[in-house]
């Protein structure tokens, strides 16, 4: 006995299968957008933190390298009133730039010769090659026996140095200017460099002992 199609009726309360409604699609798109925005925000924050840490690391590394270099030369300082050309002086020059100049036995291949004694000069000057009015740490080194050494142009040692302060300890007092020709060698030198780390200048300070001969 066959079934009469006309006698088949849909079950009450059961909807025929269909797609998502517009409201469901909008809700799904909104939730997905919020999740993507959250992920993007986290990624951006992590990326910025990584860049800041890298920038900070470069600034701290630069300060450490400069202090190591200056410290090695100060600890190798040589001055004798009976040795022409030997010197140790620093403070502020005629251009109102902070400077340090000394003869040292801690020479590099650049300043070799002259019985192992070189003249080393540091000066924090206006960076004339940069687009902004910032300062650059200049350095010059030449053999004590090189008569043409003082005429050589200094080279750019480090940028991003906002300021440099020097103090010299006589054994009882601190001075901002020093000249061994009249004062002899100082006992210690305090060097403070303000290095740009990211967007902020950060001061670094060290005290270097000068050998007593």
From TrEMBL:
Membrane topology designation: Single-pass membrane protein
Translocase found in the keyword field: no
Keyword annotations of the record: Cell inner membrane, Cell membrane, Membrane, Methylation, Transmembrane, Transmembrane helix
UniProt keyword Transmembrane, yes or no: yes
Top-rank taxon, per record: Bacteria
Compartments in which it is found: Cell inner membrane
Pfam annotation, one family: T2SSJ
Major site of localization recorded for this protein: membrane
Transmembrane portions of the chain: 20-43
Annotated family: Belongs to the GSP J family.
Protein name listed in UniProt: Type II secretion system protein J
Organism: Desulfuromonas versatilis
Lineage of source species: Bacteria, Pseudomonadati, Thermodesulfobacteriota, Desulfuromonadia, Desulfuromonadales
């Amino acid at each position: 006995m066959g079934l009469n199609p006309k006698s088949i009726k849909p079950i009450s309360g059961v909807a025929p299968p269909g797609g998502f409604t517009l409201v469901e699609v909008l809700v799904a798109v909104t939730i997905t957008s919020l999740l993507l925005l959250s992920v993007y925000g986290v990624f951006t924050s992590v990326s910025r933190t990584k860049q800041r840490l890298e920038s900070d690391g470069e600034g701290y590394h630069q300060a450490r390298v400069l202090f190591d270099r200056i410290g090695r030369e100060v600890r190798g300082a040589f001055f004798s009133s009976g040795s022409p050309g030997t010197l140790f002086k620093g403070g502020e020059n005629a251009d109102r730039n902070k400077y340090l100049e000394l003869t040292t036995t801690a020479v590099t291949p650049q300043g070799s010769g002259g019985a192992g004694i070189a003249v080393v000069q540091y000066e924090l000057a206006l960076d004339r090659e940069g687009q902004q009015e910032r300062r650059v740490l200049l350095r010059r080194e030449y053999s004590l026996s090189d008569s043409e050494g003082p005429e050589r142009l200094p080279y750019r040692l480090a940028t991003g140095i906002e300021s440099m302060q020097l103090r010299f300890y006589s054994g009882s007092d601190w001075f901002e200017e020093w000249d061994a020709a009249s004062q002899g060698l100082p006992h210690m030198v305090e060097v403070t460099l303000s290095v740009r780390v990211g967007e902020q200048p950060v001061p670094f300070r060290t005290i270097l002992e000068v050998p007593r001969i």
